[in-house]
Inverse folding.
């Protein structure tokens, strides 16, 4: 199949990196203006944007935008990465918001936040070299 890059993927990459930088900085500084839920959401938005940048660069899109759906889309291109699988499933465990009847949100603890921010950094270090390769 002949794929074509989806334009503006660079914007998604830039936005993803900014979301992750903000979440990491707020976590490190223990900024009172950023609740655990906000840091979680910033991290997840950053991860989503970076994965979408990677997929768009390759002319692909994810079917949905849960962490597991994004993981499946990545695996089509990169194969299985067990550590990334574990990290994204962990992130998905905090919000099950697709079905309004079974809507569940769990507040992250301090230890959870450490893992959440670490997961964002891990994904960024995993995808950044691949995004640079295709420029």
């Amino acid at each position: 199949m002949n794929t074509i890059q989806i334009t503006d993927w660079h914007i998604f990459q830039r936005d993803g990196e900014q979301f992750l930088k903000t979440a990491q900085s707020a976590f490190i500084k223990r900024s009172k203006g950023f609740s655990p839920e906000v840091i979680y959401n910033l991290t997840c938005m950053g991860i989503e944007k970076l994965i979408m940048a990677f997929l768009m660069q390759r002319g692909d899109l994810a079917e949905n935008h849960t962490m597991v759906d994004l993981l499946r889309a990545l695996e089509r291109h990169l194969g299985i990465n067990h550590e990334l699988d574990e990290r994204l499933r962990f992130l998905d465990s905090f919000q099950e918001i697709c079905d309004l009847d079974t809507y569940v949100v769990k507040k992250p603890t301090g230890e959870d936040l450490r893992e959440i921010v670490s997961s964002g950094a891990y994904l960024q270090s995993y995808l950044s070299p691949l995004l640079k390769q295709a420029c």
Q: What stands out?
A: The beta strands are 95-96, 104-105.
